[in-house]
Amino acid sequence: MRNLQILILLVTLTSCNKKNQVSQSLISKTDSVKLVGDVSEFLDLFKTINPNGLHIYPPSWDSNGNLNKTPFEGTPINVNKFSFVENKEIFLNIQACKEGNSHIYSIGKFEINDEYLGLIVRQQSQYNESLLQLLLWDKKQNKIVKGLDLADSFGDEGWYFDTESWIREYKVNSTFKIITRRKDSEFDEDFKNRTYSDTLKTNVFANGKFLESLNELRDTVNFKLKEWK
What we know:
Elements: H1 2-43, E1 47-48, E2 55-56, E3 75-76, H2 94-98, E4 105-111, E5 116-123, E6 131-138, E7 143-156, E8 159-168, E9 176-187, E10 194-206, E11 209-214
Parallel strand pairs: 1-4
Antiparallel strand pairs: 2-8, 3-4, 4-5, 5-6, 6-7, 7-8, 8-9, 9-10, 10-11
């Protein structure tokens, strides 16, 4: 009789262990589905765009401080909902965003290759949310990787700069080029003499990284900055 009771107890414990294993398995699957859903929800904030030939330029504001309408306004990202924007080396103003004092905007996404998506975002620069960047979405690790600054503008105390970019030779699963031009204007201490600097560079994406080279200044004739005459 005692042996029968022990046998019944062992069968009961085995049954409970199996139920717990099944329960843990279901929890794991549910968590996995939830994580994938979070990724999809985040990436859905970025509308799919065709980047070939795209001219990316910084936003501007009217005299009343209202953002002028451009293709680069974007949609505010709820930073308290998505952990993908936690990297402080990429999102320098993330704490202010969490407090509601700044924003990160999703603008567009496009396929680069089997490993990466391109994400265009707008976020805080020196004074305004004027910095447009191309960030990389790592498909295998489900995380954002640092990319390139595409456009920005800023001025203070007689100094002003403007940066704009053009995406060239884009093709999925192949290399693509980004041409970036930056022009600076600066007065001397007496605000009498103005000096200019002008640079043009090419970034080619290959093997998971951007390779930069400088262009001849004569090539700037093909890349007109929007706000410069």
